[in-house]
UniProtKB/TrEMBL annotation:
Pfam families registered for this protein in UniProt: Methyltransf_25 (PF13649)
GO molecular function, one term: methyltransferase activity
Protein's name in the database: Methyltransferase domain-containing protein
InterPro entries per record: Methyltransf_25 (IPR041698), SAM-dependent_MTases_sf (IPR029063)
Residue span(s) of domain Methyltransferase: 57-148
Organism classification: Bacteria, Bacillati, Bacillota, Clostridia, Eubacteriales
Listed SUPFAM superfamilies: S-adenosyl-L-methionine-dependent methyltransferases
Organism: Sulfobacillus thermosulfidooxidans
UniProt KW keywords: Methyltransferase, S-adenosyl-L-methionine, Transferase
């Protein structure tokens, strides 16, 4: 990566910690970075019609910046926010003309309000308590202009119960990863673990990743939105409403700041 990718502003509150995605960023970029291509038609149909050309769009939990790149190419002013410096290094390569900020989604700050804020790829399921999710929604509400749009997706309880548990391996000449996923029905906590081995000259470097998500009921999400000042969201089911087979158990929420 070029040296410029290191120059990403970092604003961290006392409750923030190093992102679990830092050690995962390279593997994510290589094997999971096609979500933007699959979700882009949804953005075209349900977000862009409400976003005037040149307006300010924030990609909250922007990851490697692929969505930011698409939005920049459409003529928008884009800010990408993520809590992982390593993810943002990839974002700098993919969307170097976006404003990239290393901030916690619960505490993010903007110099200028946004007309649209999106948060995709079940990023908000990483909020492990309802008060954390509520905090994100409150920050989004404060960051939007009146009439501004908030569009996000989350995995459902049903998806975690039926699709999450798995074990898998990625085997390539220069890297190997052992992957496992588990869902606890009682706590509604989903975990993802990866042991990653990357070849470096004659040695192999190991990185261990542990990520967690929480499943929320739809009524919990709606109530958190209302508590933050939003009206209840319009909900789109990824499979039933959008007819995307691999969006089973993914719900999209569409709401606006009315005042």
């Amino acid at each position: 990566m070029d040296n410029k990718s290191q120059n990403i502003p970092s604003i961290k509150g006392e409750n923030m910690s190093e992102s679990g995605y830092d050690d995962f960023a390279w593997l994510y970029h290589k094997h999971w970075d096609d979500f933007t291509d699959r979700v882009w038609p949804v953005i075209q149909n349900f977000v862009l019609p409400y976003a005037a050309k040149g307006c300010h769009i924030v990609d909250l939990c922007c990851g490697t910046g692929k969505m930011a790149r698409r939005l920049l190419d459409e003529g928008y002013w884009v800010t990408g926010i993520d809590n992982s410096q390593e993810m943002l290094q990839w974002a700098h390569q993919n969307a170097s003309d976006a404003t990239l900020l290393c901030q916690d989604a619960r505490e993010f700050q903007l110099d200028q309000p946004a007309q649209v804020i999106v948060s995709l790829f079940d990023s908000l399921n990483h909020m492990m308590h309802i008060h954390d999710l509520q905090q994100v929604f409150s920050r989004v509400f404060e960051a939007l202009v009146p009439g501004g749009l908030f569009f996000f997706d989350m995995n459902t309880v049903q998806k975690y119960e039926s699709r999450w548990a798995s074990q898998n391996a990625l085997i390539y000449p220069d890297h190997v990863a052992a992957l496992s996923a588990h869902y606890d029905l009682k706590t509604r906590i989903a975990s993802f673990d990866a042991a990653i081995f990357v070849k470096h000259q004659e040695a192999w470097i190991r990185r261990d990743v542990h990520l967690t998500q929480r499943a929320y009921a739809v009524n919990e999400i709606q109530q958190a939105l209302v508590n933050a000042g939003f009206p209840e969201a319009r909900i789109l089911d990824g499979l039933q409403d959008l007819s995307v087979s691999d969006f089973y158990g993914r719900l999209f929420f569409w709401t606006q700041k009315l005042s």
